[in-house]
Amino acid sequence: MAALGRRRLRELRVAVVVASTLAVGISGALGYVYLHLNANIKTFSEVGVSRSRPPEATPATTAPGQPAAQPPINLLLIGSDTRAGGNVSLGGGFAVEGARSDTTILLHVSGDRKHAVGVSIPRDALVDVPACYANGGWLPAQTDVMFNSAFSEGNLPTGNPICTQNTVEAMSGIRIDHTMVIDFSGFAAMSRAVGGVTVCVPAVNSTYLEHAYGVTLDPGVQNLSGQAAVEYVRAREGFGDNSDIGRMKRQQAFLSALMKKMLDSGTLDNPVALYQLADAATKSLTVDSSLDSVSSLVSLGVQLKTVPLYNLEFVTTPWSYDGARVDLIQPDTDVLWSLLREDRTLEGQDASGGASATSGPTGSASAAPTASPGPSAASERMRLMALGEAGPSSSASTGTSPSAVASDEASAAGTTAGTPTPVPSGITQNIRRADSDPCSDLSYGN
């Protein structure tokens, strides 16, 4: 019995040593992974953040005995067209200097963490850019200039994200919590890390695209990664009317498909796949200083993960053509910003998670934001006619934006099937949900 006891004691000691060794090895590996991912992260200087910013979002008031609501999160996503850092091979244009914002989306995650809205801002939209900081000094404010020029203020090799952030805050009245920038090579790397993304390529003038730009996208559903994925979200000419408006539709579709891929494939629950994605993401993104660690990025990701695809909505700011540029239609665009400021869905539903949140159908009278309603159909037509963009009774055949065309009598006057709502149809009729048909609404015009 004594010999048996000594043998069991030795076995127990061996087990303890093995377990301890494994624990040290695992913790060491995890520590290496953490330090490696942290070292990947690049941040940009926040010198130049506006001295006059919108107030921070606050959580909604909850009913007694209910969990406290969370404040909404406003995340600015910027796709840079910089050719610096090895991006020439993906973006082309060897003589292109500086950087512009190819894509800008303001992602609003509601306080209930069950809804999110992504607002695309046209790069050619004419806006006011506040004074911005670059190269050691402040540059003067500008009026009625292209939106993507904010990112190029100072002609910095990798862009000026703070100037874009200041511009979005000034135009929307929404305080940006976090700003992220991704370039061509980063986007390509992330699409490869998830094994490609299944998207639908609309009808395309492939001969023109291939000869002019070397783009060889074939119509139909296919899995794209790397350079092909970059081409899908960047290509304008050859699709529809060759506009940035159509390109934004495909960008929204791609992001929807990317989210679906990560959720359906179990990427977020697979340690190996998650590490590959995290490695690609941390190498790909340049972020503000509040996201300068893996733990900060993970914390943000956990909050984004809870939003189901059918509650992730995309929309473009209501717009109309102004020659080769784009005007933002008012008051429709201001109504859109007010929906986000009041933490509502694009249909007007309260998504704050507070005591007053509506549980009925979206767009109901009780869910109405306090912003002013959209223009009447008659007033909208008069405005467009003054701009030379609409005929006496309809603008549908003139190339005017769907935002303007959608302002029909029923919706723009504040009724939808008899239910009052102040949300203009230029918003409600141009929503793309992340679970939409991947082949629907992918180009504009022609």
UniProtKB/TrEMBL annotation:
Pfam families: LytR_cpsA_psr. The keyword Transmembrane helix applies. InterPro entries: LytR/CpsA/Psr_CW_biosynth, LytR_CpsA_psr. Keywords: Membrane, Transmembrane, Transmembrane helix. Residues 58-69, 352-379, 390-426 have a biased composition (Low complexity). Residues 48-69, 347-446 are annotated as: Disordered. The keyword Transmembrane applies. Residues 100-263 form the Cell envelope-related transcriptional attenuator domain. The chain crosses the membrane at residues 12-35. Belongs to the LytR/CpsA/Psr (LCP) family. This is LCP family protein. The lineage of its organism: Bacteria, Bacillati, Actinomycetota, Actinomycetes, Catenulisporales.
